[in-house]
Request: fold
Amino acid sequence: MAAPGENLRINGDRLWDSIHEIAGIGPGIAGGSNRQTVTDEDSEARHLFRKWCEEAGCTMGLDQMGTMYARREGTDPDALPVMVGSHLDTQPTGGRYDGVLGVLGALEIIRTLNDLDIRTKHPIEVVNWTNEEGTRFAPAMMASGVFAGVISQEDAYAKTDAEGKRFGDELARIGWRGEEEVGARKMHAFFELHIEQGPILEAEGRDIGVVTHGQGLRWIECTVTGKESHTGSTPMPMRRNAGRGLAQITELVHAIAMDNQPNAVGAIGHIDVHPNSRNIIPGKVVFTVDFRSHELDRLNAMVERLMAEAPPLCDGIGVSFEAEIVGQFDPPAFDETLVQSIRDAAERLGYSHKDIVSGAGHDACWVNKIYPTAMVMCPCVDGLSHNEAEEITKEWSTAGAEVLFHAVLETAGVAG
Reply:
């Protein structure tokens, strides 16, 4: 399909104003957002989004997971839609841009097409996926996971929050559980715009990240078992300190990640120490190792090395080691044709760009399993995200949305 001309630009001021207007719903305590999934605040933001979409001439669809689809018709009644979007839910102490930029950047495409009186061959649908963050109800990327067939809707409905409330019940309570079967809506392609959530683009002075892959991950829950005993009266040579096992494996995880550079990471996040008393040597430590890479063979090799080297480390200090994989996600490779359309758009518009790997999970990663998918990223200050201090510039949001606009328009086709 013919590429759109470089003179086609979105309204960056309108996009910026919309982002900050919706941030007034569920404001955080430090300038960010607290609009967790299927809360009253989430519902209020959905109502505003629907209002904006209807004002732009779209019809709104809603599926049984609460995912919203704002459709602008194309000229070909048989053409599948080009979908573009992200999510409106946030972390409890989230920023203003994570997810929101992708939804409202997609809406800005519709608004700009209306301004310019451009019709597309394929319909365009702006998508707001439910519960991308997974902070109130695990797992993350829940609705897109159900859409892609990797999470069952029954299991999703049954998930509970810290207060024991079920996801399905809360979705119905706020009035956003639709009738449409999840996954019944087919698509021609999917695009997602997102802030990088990392420091690479800003550090290198690039305007646009062209996402070629997402990182795969492995979560390995490890248990080191020693013997609880008094910290004051147990001789040093006789201690079986599970905490030492944790310390040594922490260094091992770091070494494995460093030996697999670039584009591989590893760390220990969640840790439970038992009995967690000041004057008792830990008898058991349970912790989770998080390994990520966009190369499947490398990712699996990192796990294999941990499993091979951790047990003898622990044996050497008189403690035992057990581990199991409790979470896994193979690295997605995004559609090469769509990825190239993003590169071409950045070049056409005069924006500096760089191929990057997404270090975080996104709805696009699940959609990519069943439909051609690609992602555009813009920088964020210091790479900070999932934090109320998350920040981008209006220029960055405009650049990202313009590249998104051109890639979507090229894929959807300008009607003759």
